[in-house]
Structures are given as structure tokens and as C-alpha cells.
Amino acid sequence: MSLANLPIIVEDELFLYPFMITPIFLSDEKNIKALDMAINDSSAVMVVCSKLAHSGERDFESIYEYGVIGNVMRRVAMPDGRVKILFQGLSRGKITQPISSDPLIAQVQSVGLEEFESSKIEAGLNVLKESVKSLSLLNHFFPPDLLRAIDDSNEASRVCDLVCSALHLKKDIAYGFFTQLNLEQKILDIIEYLNAQIETNKLQKEIKSKVSSKLDRANKEYFLKEQLKEIQRELGMDLDKEAQITQYRNKLEAGRKFMSDDAYKEIEKNISKLSKMHTDSAESSMTSSYLDWALDMPFGKFSTKKLTVKDVQKELDSDHFGLEKPKSRIVEYFGLKELLHSRGLEDNKGAILCFVGPPGIGKTSLANSISNALKRELVRIALGGLEDVNELRGHRRTYIGAMPGRIVQGLIEAKSMNPVVVLDEIDKVARSYKGDPTAVLLEILDPEQNSKFRDYYLNFHIDLSKVIFIATANDASAIPAPLRDRMEFIWLNSYTPQEKFEIAKRYLWPNELKKHGLKSSEVVIKKDALNLLISDYTRESGVRNLRHRIADILRKSALEILSEQTKKISITTKNLENYLDKKVFEITVISGKNEIGIANGLAWTAVGGDVLKIEALKIKGKGAMQITGQLGDVMKESATIAFSLVKSLIDKGEICISKNLIQKDKDGIDMAVYDSYDLHIHVPEGATPKDGPSAGITMTTVIASILSDTPIYSDVAMTGEITLSGKVLPIGGLKEKLIAAYKAGVKKAIIPLKNYDRDLKDIPQQVRDNMEIIGVEDITEVLKVALVK
């Protein structure tokens, strides 16, 4: 194949083939220079395609490598400055080496197609011609003259080029076929493309046929419906939508003075749109649904009861026993609102209250009491597991099944613009690809922003500044920090057994009797039985499970009365087990026996406090330590710190070691006791994950006990974080821990001195009166109290 240096003309739109005689219009300066050079030198010229249409670039990076070598048959100057040439293609060419960029000149090699077995090429050519005929029946790509030329030709390469030129291929597809030099494979590739086009054209033809049929049917239905409407009008059965439009307009005008301008404009726009729509269209139904929601908004409707602190205090005291601190804070909150209102000042800048505490402690019922005291509707929005931001803000109306958000639905349900809205389980809001609901909650709970809250469905601003928002959560740390900043937390801690007794006696038992249709004279529970029910059949900080157990008792009691076995039932400690399944044993009562290597730790759980036994065992070894009980990393670190601290105390002589524990090495020298034994520390209930630093002093005491063979007082429990220097650091959850210690029969509780000074006033009086609470700041103080002298 010959090589020659040829000028290059770049064509932006046409893809040329060797057999073509084609007019080309040139306006680019480089192209015209290349043309002049070819004419002056009486040489051939190569026409190549640019990689992008209308690129305007004339360099070797922007053009294809392959093109068509041919002659310029004619040149004509156009009035608009362009040059028209008539180009005759002769053969394929490939640029092998660029020579000049202005004009484009390159070394060009003429290339031909590779042919193999003539029988395969002939068979493939016949199949190709059949595919062309099939496609020509479905579209207009192939004029009759071209079909005859394809059918009459036996030159496979020419037929391939004719077919490709007729298909109006995209530039990259055409170039792929053009550069395929294996003729057999080229025929197969073009056949595959033709077959795909045949299937596509068949499908398009089928779709057009179906659409045409549906349009005809729709036109027929339209004319029939119009006739039906005329018949209905003649019979006095006018079912036109004018009445509906009139009703919407009347509602709009009635609430206009209470609406914002953007709300009025949006609703009025949709009423006008609906009046122009056909009744049976899908959009008409969507617009009607929108107007039903929008006009159901309680614009201008507010609870008119005057806010008084006395009513709030009275309702809280009548509905809840205990919870003095939370109730006091709630009263302060509404006291401030009453003062601002009485002085004509805005009261919408206050903090959002968030009740935090274990399940069943009374968070939602406090919100109910506030609602009752203010005579406002209560709207409860459960946020647990919520991950779709549109659930709160509403769906845009472009979605099928779109609805307003839960906030708007709550206002419509309450029929008031100032209800009490409880955002339940705000700590369990989830974040996903559907958005972050926390971002919407930030706007809802921010007094500076919620006066113009925008629901995506309604598409206008809503004033939420008069709504009283109350959030509830089990774990405040799980609430995102920006959201925590907008709320004031009111902590609800565990009830003492005495408080549970009073709640059950005053509220739970009478309420459940009423629910079960029983009289107080028919079923009676003795005081001891109720105390046993609280201590041995429930495991919780609140009273939810206690209510369930009371309901269990009353269901069986109702069945006995119904079967006329008795007319009066008395629940005592002896027959309580007949009405309930089994005891749960919330707190393991202390053993009463002083033991070596067993100490009582105090732990906080999601359902309150617990007494945690920590055990240690020594085995002859080399000073290794093993820790079991499914402990977290922090708790394992506490054990390591405790072991190191005890070693230090032994070395200093602050922990006395019995002589019978001291062993000698092979040289007869006394060994340190901690190098003579391996320790195994275990925290029972191994299936339950445990973590936290507050077991530090307990682990130190256990290790000191086992290495010195000194018993630990069984009626002592302790909690506190330990440092390597022996300092005792403060911990959290003190109230729940001390309540658990009291329930377990602990006589002395060792706590960090900082907790003693700071938190002791929060401990129930009943617990303080029945248990000695000792504040410590060094481990030596702990060991003096905990170890038997």
C-alpha cells in the first residue's frame, strides 16, 4: 500500500465513503489552504471527519485517523465567501504521520479491506441484502434506486459502504464500521445493527398503532360523555363542577383575612386552574385533593382559654405522683408565658421542652396533662425510625399519592393553629438517602424560623409560632447537637418503690378497674401484694409494665367473676402467683455473707439502675489477667487500670498480704503476690453487653480482695471511675444506681465525693434515710470501707 504526503480537509458533519461524489462547502481558512495546495500541486486530497460536530478545531487531536482519499473535480467560489467543491472519493486512507498543522498535511497510507473465504463473504452478503430489504419495508432509509444498486452489486465492500451511507449513522458508529478492515466481520457487524433496527422499527410501529387506537377510543369516550352531560342537564341532573368550584371559592373568601398573601394566591390559583380542567382528567383529581387539604387548614382558629399557671399546676398534681422537679420546671415554663402574655409581650421565643427518661416514666402523659390544662388539642407525632424528610415537610404534588406533612396533618386534625404537638422519640430519628429529618426539625423547633414554615405539598408558609412543641426522648446523647441546642431538657428519673406503690394505688389500679368494667368492691389488692408485685414481677424505671401486670390480674379476676366462682376477690401475697406467670426479680438482693473476691457494683441501664456483681478468682500462674462477661473496651481498660493500681498499692505496703500467699522463686526469694497468680475477673450475665468507666473502684476492690485474701462486706455497693493515681472520678446516673442499691438491701453505698457534693440532693429522701452514702476521693478510702478489717 502506497504512502504519500497529502493535504487534509476536515469535514464536520458528513461522513464520506470511497464511492461517493459529494459537494462539500468550505469556510475554514485551513481547509481552503489545503484545497489550494491540492489544486496547485494537482494532487489528491484526503477528507476526514472531526470527532465532534461543529467543533471548529483543525488539529490532528480533533480529527479521526481514517478518512477518504480522492480528487477535487470542481471548485466554485460562493457569494457568502465560502468555497464549494465537488469531491470524488477513491479509496480509504489512514494518517500515519502528521507533517504540518497549517494547513493540515500528513503522510497518508491507502488501505484496503481484508478478504478471507469467499464463500462466507458471499453468504454473509446475501443475508445482508435480505436484512436491508426487511428494514426498507419498515422505514424510508432506502430509496428504490439504492435498493436496486445494492441488490445488483456483488462487491461486498461497496455494498457495505452503500448500506452504511443510507442508514444515517451517528458519527462514532459509522467510523467503527468504516475502520473495520476485516470484511467478513464487517458484514456480520452491519447485519447485527440492521437486525436491531428492524426490531426497533417493528416496536415503534406497534406502539404507534396502539396509541392511535387509544386516541380513537378516547375521542369516542369524550363525545359520549359530552352527550351524557347534555342528557343529564335536560333531565335536571346537572352534575357539573360549578357547585364544587363555588364551594371552594366561598371557603377561600371566608378564611381570607386569616391567611397569608402567599397562601391565598396559591389556593386561588389552583381553584382557577381546576375550573379550566376537564372533570375526568387525572390532574383535576389531584387539584381537587390539594384544595380539600389546603382549605381544611384551620386558618384563624385558636384555643381561646386563658393560660394560667394554677391550672397547669393543678392538672400536673392530679395526674402525676412524684416527679416534683420536672413538674416544677414545667410550671416555671408556663409561668413565664403567662407573665409575658399579661404584659402584652411576645411569648414565642421560649425554649422547646424535651422530656428525657426511660420508657414508661410518664413523658407522654406529662404532655397530655399540659394539653388538658390549656384546653388545647394534643397532636402526637411518632418520630421513631422516621427517615423520609417528606413525612414532615410534605411531598411535592408531582408525586403520585402526594400528601401534606405530618405537621400540617396534625393541625388539620386538631382544627386549631395552636395545639400541643408531642414529637415522640426524637432521639430515634434516622438519616438516609431520602434526606435528613433533623434539618426539618431544626426549622420547626426554631422560634426564629417556624413562623414561616413551608410545607412542600401546600406550597405556602404556615405560622407554627403559636404551637407548643414538646419532645420526648430516651437518650439525649442520641439527639444531634444542633437540635439539642434548641431544646431544654427536663430529666425524668426512675421511681422509687414507694413512689411506684403510690402511683399504682392512686392511678393505675383505679384506672384499670374502670377499663375492665370492675368495681373497687369486687377486686381488692392488699398492700403487701402490691409491694410484691412491684419488687418481684416488674423490671423497669417507670410503671408501664406494672400497669400491664395489674391488667393481667384484673383479666383473670373478671373471668372468675363472670364464671360466678366468686363475687369478691382479694389479691394477697399467697395467691398473687395464681394471677401472674412468674417472678422477674428486678434486683438481685445481696447475699448477706462477706466473701473474698465478690463485690457489688452499681450500674445504669436503659430501664433504670442495677446491682452488678463483679467476681475474681486467682489461679497459680505468672501474673496474667483474664476478663470475661461481654465487656466493652472502656470497662476492660478499667480492669487493667485497677490491676496496675493494686500492684502499686501492694508495693507501697498499703495493702497487707497474708504470708501464706507469698511464694518463693527457684532461688528462694519471695515473689510478689501478683506475679504468683493469674487472675480471672468475671461480670455475670455474660449475654448482656456492659461498658463504662464507673466500675473502676469496684474492680480495684475485687482485685485487692482476692490478692490479699480479705473478704468484702456484702452490704456495701460502690460506683466510681478510677485513675492510675488512685483518684475517684465522678460518674452519671447516680439516682438510678442508688435506688437500685436501696432495692437490693444495700446498707452502705460508696460514691465519688464530687457526686456526693453535687447530686445528693436529687436522691429520694426514702433512699437517703435507709442507706449510708459515703463520698470518697481516693481508692484507699474505698478499701477502708469495703474490706473487712
Number of domains: 6
Largest beta sheet: strand ordering: 18-19-17-16-20-23-24
Mean pLDDT over the full residue set = 82
Counted by DSSP, the helix tally is 26
For the largest beta-sheet, the strand count, sense and barrel status come to:
7 strands, mixed
Shape designation: extended
Strand content: 15-25%
Task: Please describe what this structure looks like.
With 789 residues, this protein is α/β, with parallel strands linked by helices. It has six domains: 3-111, LON domain-like (Archaeosine Trna-guanine Transglycosylase, Chain: A, domain 4, Roll); 118-197; 242-295, no CATH class; 309-404 and 415-491, P-loop containing nucleotide triphosphate hydrolases (Rossmann fold, 3-Layer(aba) Sandwich); 497-578, Helicase, Ruva Protein, domain 3 (Orthogonal Bundle), CATH 1.10.8; 598-786, Ribosomal Protein S5, domain 2. Helix content is 43%, strand content 19%. It contains 26 helices and 24 strands. It has a seven-stranded mixed sheet with strand order 18-19-17-16-20-23-24. Strand 21 (721-722) and strand 22 form a beta hairpin. The termini are far apart. The mean pLDDT is 82.
